[in-house]
Amino acid sequence: MSQSCSRRAFLQSSAAGLAGVACTAEPAVASASLAPATRLRSPVAVASENGLQAVQIAVEKMLAGWRPVDAAVAGVTVVEDDPLDDSVGLGGLPNEEGVVELDACVMDGPSGLAGAVAALQGIQNPSQVALKVMRHTDHVLLVGEGALRFARSYGFPVVELLTAASRKVWLEWRERRGAADKWLHPDENGPHGKAWFDQWKHKTGTIHLGAVDANGDCGSCTTTSGLAFKIPGRVGDSPLIGCGNYCDNDVGTGGSTGRGEACILANGGAFIVQQMAAGKSPTDACVAAVQRVVRLTKVKRLLDDQGRPNFQVKFYAVGKNGQFGAASMYPSKFAVADDAGARLLDTAAQFATAPR
Ligand code: ASP
């Protein structure tokens, strides 16, 4: 019998009730076309919409010989360092107590290793700390105080990540969030601004970047400040291997941004890569992940009046063969760079109109 389990052997062992005897190997990668026959024309990088510059940098780094995972981190570092991007690193929107807490992970195809940090405070570049976890420890995920001490031991400076702009947004949120507390926004003495509050209700943001070099080697990274005004200690999908990010060097990369809770419940990143391994194109694999989220979303508070999920989620994929794609619950864009340059493209949207 081949290394993977034949269907007949599976049926026979099931019928005989031989639990645990056979079929422990996962199915082989179905699509032979995944493996590039020759070198790819160019490295490829795919990212969320805020990653236009990041994908360009990642491709340049891979052209210069960097490993895809290092190229991915070089790309997202620009976004982490940007005080005007309120979804990642410096200037990220904080938790409900006004403290910026960051999540990130990296995955390296050739070694099959990963590193991650979650609920990390005061460190501007969590993706670089995740690389250190991957390269210098036998662990995958460090959280909170332990992650901070680990980062400091490698010389990462502790900085105030809350910028004046993100503090202003947080203070406004605190003053408007409910009628049952004693916070008061000055507007409440005049015209009431409910629309302002609503725009932050599901505010998320992140950068995911998947990279494949000309040899077909893969690497990926996801980094975020997570859900705005989250409960302290909340961890989203971004630092969880198999959720906000996954990479299999025989197949490609898969990642996510948007409502992290939905991606965790669907195991988005790993699901996408499995779909590609079974022969789907990157776009179709991402569409399948969105449809999985639709199917798994059942409670009323998460559905709009048409029964559609009332949140955004986006999935991104790059195949080992250089094909790429993205899909989302509602219309959106994603960034890609290859030998045709860096550009924004439309995702395949499950629903054409915004949730109500
Ligand atoms: N997925 C991230 C999280 O839930 C947020 C986002 O991508 O917008 O933490």
Helix content: 25-40%
So what's the oligomer here? single chain
Lateral strand order in the biggest sheet: 4-3-2-6-5-1-11-12
The CATH class? Alpha Beta
* Total count of helical runs of at least 4 residues: 10
The proportion of residues in beta strands is: 15-25%
Specify Rg, calculated over alpha carbons: 21 Å
The number of domains: 1
Give the beta-strand count.
13
Low-confidence stretches: 1-23
The profile of the biggest β sheet is: 8 strands, mixed
**Second rung of CATH, namely the architecture:** 4-Layer Sandwich
| Ligand names | aspartic acid
CATH topology: Glutamine Phosphoribosylpyrophosphate, subunit 1, domain 1
On the 0 to 100 scale, the average pLDDT is 88
Could you name the CATH homologous superfamily? Answer: (Glycosyl)asparaginase
User: Shape, please?
Assistant: globular
Question: CA-to-CA gap between the ends?
Answer: 53 Å
Q: In sequence order, what are the helices and strands, one letter per element?
A: HEHHEEHEHHHEEEEHHHEEEEE
Question: Pairing-aware structural class of the strands and helices?
Answer: alpha+beta
Description:
By secondary structure, this protein is α+β, with helices and mostly antiparallel strands. The chain has one domain: Glutamine Phosphoribosylpyrophosphate, subunit 1, domain 1 (4-Layer Sandwich), CATH 3.60.20. The chain has ten helices and 13 strands. It has helices at 7-15, 52-63, 68-80, 126-136, 144-153, 164-176, 194-200, 260-266, 268-277, 282-296; strands at 44-48, 101-108, 113-121, 141-143, 206-212, 218-224, 245-248, 252-258, 313-319, 324-328, 333-338, 341-346, 348-349. The strands form two sheets. The protein has an eight-stranded mixed β-sheet with strand order 4-3-2-6-5-1-11-12. A five-stranded mixed β-sheet has the order 7-8-9-10-13, covered by helices on one side. Helix 3 packs antiparallel against helix 4 (126-136), helix 8 packs across helix 10 (282-296) and helix 9 crosses helix 10 (282-296). The protein is globular and about 70 Å long. The structure holds aspartic acid.
